[in-house]
Specification:
D-amino Acid Aminotransferase, Chain A, domain 1, five-stranded parallel β-sheet, 18 helices, binds ligand MV4
């Protein structure tokens, strides 16, 4: 401990917290605050007037009309509410202002505690190139590539030939796959680079792009870390988030089905070093890709509490929001790395108001029926109740369905059971898609990567009658196989496994 500055010896006052968010995460943060005896303040937009997070809070203030830019993103207005109502700290949740360094700076300047990292850490990790630069010299494995922006296509070609095709062009300010371009051969590079740059400018106002070796079938593994103000940093193991669709995660779990003890420990140590390189404080997540041989590569760090944090909470028994608040208060982490252990297995399904039969089209409307499952091994984090409209203005996530078991197959079985007991009418949801994943042979065996959804899933697989058709087709195929091996051609890979489990 190095507590020479007075500020470090004095714990910040934290009697009242404003949650600058909505929906399930606002509720989830307030629950822990209440548990800790801290008063809660909600903000809301006009369309969220009757939302559960507003009712749950001790006080609530309307910040404007539906669109985020006129409500949840109005940082100055939110700070004014804090100053006028003796708010000690702001919890930003995820999305909205949670990774906005300028907002964080303003909050701190007004003497309000921001429950999250410093603007300094946020700015470093908000730029992939700055992040690469910061971790240089810390012995963190990174994808082969360059660590500065390229503009000249001829130079880019030289670099790409050095690295070897296929390569990936990435936007430094990028997120969610925007500004990312795979390039298979030299002739395509110039055009793809121009596209990546213009997409980066229009999406982020920053045209800086760089080049990496393309890892063609990676798994997405991220490490949760916690760091206090006194130089203590620990990791809370990994979450695997490879089941995603167009960069939107749908299923997450902890631990990963494939990591060995050794790789887990090495990734944990690398994540801690990344956090230390950024002088990180609070809860954060370090993202890695792993390849078929379990080589891991640092990608980026997310400087917020993540949507999928409950799976980590369940396997470690640690309330991450409680830790965030205590760290922001200036407390010392109450555990050391060797105190932390993985206990069992947790699975999360994001229940979106989207129609998986129709290309995951948003399906907003009224929740005519809404009954979440309850029971041992089931946690539902939601922000809606029966009869509510799902607003068009925000992310269409209705709930996170989280299940737990003493091992992975128990967690999967519990998820299937919970999905079957979830009743939602009035909007289409990703529940049936979740069941498809849980029952898929590749998912069950752990033999999957980030291409799972496009490799195995077609919307028709969930429409009525398809299961019967598939079964008949499977029986026919078996008969053909028995009768004449030669007639049977290999079936399209996207269907094979799905059929075979029904044989
Ligand atoms: C990659 C990659 C392959 N090779 N980098 C996608 C979003 C951003 N966080 C990083 N991403 C990727 N970076 C190299 N060098 C593949 C992806 C990627 C991906 C990563 C994690 C989860 C899902 C993904 C889906 C497509 C591409």
């Amino acid at each position: 401990m190095h507590g020479f500055e007075l500020v470090n010896l004095m714990n910040h006052l934290m009697n009242k917290i404003l949650v600058a968010n909505r929906g399930e995460i606002a509720l989830r943060v307030m629950r822990t605050a209440k548990k800790m005896g801290i008063k809660t303040v909600a903000i809301y937009s006009e369309v969220d007037r009757n939302a559960p997070h507003v009712r749950y809070a001790d006080e609530a203030f309307c910040v404007g009309p539906g669109p985020s830019s006129e409500s949840y993103l109005l940082g100055d207005k939110i700070i004014e509410i804090c100053l006028a109502n003796q708010v000690d700290g702001i919890h930003p949740g995820y999305g909205f202002l949670s990774e906005n360094a300028e907002f964080t700076r303003k909050v701190t300047d007004k003497g309000i505690t921001f429950i999250g990292p410093s603007p300094f850490s946020m700015e470093i990790m908000g730029s992939k190139l700055a992040a690469k630069d910061a971790v240089k010299g810390y012995d963190i494995p990174m994808v082969p590539g360059i660590d500065r922006a390229v503009e000249d296509p001829e130079l880019a070609k030289e670099i790409a030939k050095d690295i070897g095709f296929p390569i990936l062009i990435k936007a430094s300010a990028g997120g969610g796959g925007k500004g990312m371009r795979v390039v298979e051969k030299e002739e395509e590079l110039e055009e793809q680079m121009e596209r990546a740059i213009s997409e980066a400018i229009s999406s982020f106002g920053d045209g800086a792009v760089f080049i990496e070796k393309y890892i063609s079938s990676p798994r997405h593994i991220e490490i949760q870390i916690l760091a206090d103000r006194h130089g203590n940093t620990v990791h809370l193991f990994e979450r695997e988030c490879s089941i995603q669709r167009r960069h939107q995660k749908v299923v997450e779990e902890a631990p990963s089905a494939v990591l060995t003890k050794e790789v887990r420990a090495a990734m944990g140590q690398a994540a801690i070093k990344v956090a230390e390189a950024a002088k990180y404080e609070g809860a954060g997540t370090v993202e890695f890709l792993i390849d078929d041989d379990l080589n891991f590569y640092f990608l980026e760090m997310n400087t917020r509490l993540q949507v999928e944090h409950p799976v980590t909470e369940w396997i470690t028994g640690i309330d991450l929001v409680e830790q965030q608040i205590n760290i922001a208060r200036g407390e010392v982490l109450p555990f050391k790395q060797e105190d932390l252990k993985i206990n069992g297995h947790a699975m999360e399904l994001r229940v979106y108001a989207e129609d998986p039969v129709n290309n995951f089209l948003p399906s907003v409307g009224k929740l005519e029926t809404y009954q979440a499952p309850v029971g041992e091994g089931i946690r539902v984090d939601d922000g809606f109740t029966e009869g509510m409209d799902i607003p068009i203005y925000y992310d269409p996530m209705i709930a996170k369905l989280v299940t737990y078991g003493s091992n992975r197959s128990e967690a999967i079985a519990k998820m299937v059971e919970a999905i079957e007991h979830y009743e939602i009418k009035g909007v289409e949801t990703t529940l049936a898609f979740g069941k498809f994943v849980m029952e898929h042979e590749a998912f069950i065996s752990g033999n999957f990567n980030t291409h799972f959804v496009k490799q195995y899933f077609k919307g028709e697989m969930l429409s009525q009658g398809y299961e019967e058709e598939a079964e008949i087709a499977a029986i026919l195929a078996t008969k053909l196989l028995q009768g004449n091996q030669a007639i049977v051609k290999p079936i399209d890979q996207s269907n094979t496994n799905w059929w075979s489990k029904r044989l």
